[in-house]
Amino acid sequence: MKAFGFSEYGAPTVFQEIDKEIKDPKPDQVQIEVMAFGINPYDILLRQGQFKEIRPLKFPFVPGTDLVGQVVKVGDEVTNFKVGDYVINYRPSGAYGERVNATADKVVKRPRTLSFLDAASLPTPGIAAYNAWHHFADVKDGDVIGIAGVTGLVGSLLAQMAKSQGHEVIGSASAANVEYAKWIGVDRFIAYDEEQDRSKFESSADVVFDATLGGHDDGLSDSLVKPGGQIVLIPNLKYDVKTPDVKVTHLIPGQGASNKEALEYWVELSKTWGVSIRVQNILKFTREDVVKAHELIEAHHSGKTVIQIERAHRTSFEGQKHAD
Ligand SMILES: NC(=O)c1ccc[n+]([C@@H]2O[C@H](COP(=O)([O-])OP(=O)(O)OC[C@H]3O[C@@H](n4cnc5c(N)ncnc54)[C@H](OP(=O)(O)O)[C@@H]3O)[C@@H](O)[C@H]2O)c1
Q1: What span, in angstroms and rounded, lies between the C-alpha atoms of 284 and 261?
Q2: CA 178 to CA 171: how far, in whole Å?
Q3: Collapsing DSSP states into helix, strand and coil, what is residue 151?
Q4: Closest CA to 287 of 1, 6, 47
Q5: Is the CB of 296 under 6 A from ligand 1?
Q6: Distance of CA 219 to the CA centre of its chain
């Protein structure tokens, strides 16, 4: 099967097309034909070799953690999925390929309420937002929620979670994103590139999430939070807080809920409340576009980038009966 990966660390151009063998799924696995996969900043860091001490890669390495696809084979012990199901999978690597095998308990069914492209974009930011809220914040009923970076992937999911639970949300992003912020329900919007006077928002949120890219919020979370409140930092950074008695917590990847629990939360919320994810770039399954996707993220191009695998016809499921 066709995949894209690399055999050395370096620039986006290290990507090569790889002909990768895929075995039949193990008894507890399903085999998924990938329809689309999301590109994450984590993929870029792996390719650059920034994690080579803590996560040395075996080459050739095919990255990719977030995908949506269709089940094409089912292991003997799997009872909760059938051939033809549309599913979402979060995995350590391998999504940049035509097929993957995934342990069934790491897979959730894609609801019709999430488009395929949204579903491919959901896992990494969805798991981060879910854990930040449920395991690193102490949100009480009626708390006012502040979100620096409210229109980003993580920030917009946090805002929708907060609105679905009846919280008032104050959020910041650039002025260009005000309409999207309103659309996802943000009550009060701070345009960080236009709003010079922050005094009217000062000390107005009980819990503030810093979901800006790299945590560069120019001190906004500190000015938003009330004395005695809480700041939850999504990016890994040191943050200097001047507001008195503020509890600062860091989201630690891998700690918190199981990934499946987090994904199931978003699946349910998409059915009961509705979930919006903004996909900005839809690219093709070619080496040129995989390189381009990495270049876009390196250039801090905002919005989600998804690679879509187009097929002239869908797989015939190798002799098995199609799902309804
Ligand atoms: N620990 C984890 O598991 C985990 C998982 C996912 C993400 N993250 C981290 O979380 C952060 C957010 O990720 P993301 O994918 O949501 O990023 P993103 O989609 O690029 O969103 C960044 C947001 O920050 C806003 N922003 C930029 N500069 C700002 C400023 N000075 N003040 C206020 N807002 C500002 C952007 O608004 P404009 O576009 O209008 O400028 C945008 O709304 C990243 O650092 C990422 O690495 C961590």
Answers
A1: 31
A2: 10
A3: coil
A4: 6
A5: no
A6: 25
pLDDT tens by residue, 238-279: 888 999 999 999 998 888 778 999 999 999 999 999 999 999
205 φ/ψ sector (left φ>0, alpha ψ -120 to 50, else beta):
beta
Task: Tell me which residue of 205, 210, 204 sits closest to 148, measured CA to CA.
Answer: 210
136, 147, 153, 154, best to mutate for ligand 1 pocket (most atoms within 8 Å of CB): 154
- 148 DSSP 8-state letter: E
Among 157, 184, 212, the mutation site with the greatest number of ligand 1 atoms within 8 A of its Cβ is 212
Which amino acid type is present at position 150? Answer: V
Query: What H or E segment, with its residue span, contains residue 283?
Result: strand 279-284
Nearest-atom number in ligand 1 for the CA of 190 is: 33
Residues 6+ apart with CB under 8 A from 241: 222, 225, 231, 248
Taking the C-alpha atoms of residue 168 and residue 154, their distance in angstroms, rounded to an integer, is 18
Conformation bin of residue 226: beta by default, left when phi > 0, alpha when psi is -120 to 50: beta
The segment(s) of the chain belonging to CATH 3.40.50.720 are 125-250
Q: What digits encode the pLDDT tens for the residues 274-294?
A: 999 999 999 999 999 999 999
Nearest-angstrom CA–CA distance, 73 and 24 = 8
Instruction: State the average pLDDT over residues 39-62.
Output: 95
Tell me the longest C-alpha to C-alpha distance in the chain.
66
- Looking at domain 2-122+277-319, its CATH architecture is Alpha-Beta Complex (3.90)
Q: Return the SS3 of 267.
A: helix
Report the alpha-carbon distance of residue 138 to residue 231 in Å, rounded.
Answer: 10
Give the DSSP letter of residue 232: E
Is the CATH code 3.40.50.720 the one for domain 125-250? yes
* Ligand 1 contacts CB of residue 192 (under 6 A): yes
CATH 3.90.180.10 residue spans of the chain? 2-122+277-319
Residue 32 burial (C-beta neighbours within 10 Å; 0-12, 13-18, 19+): buried
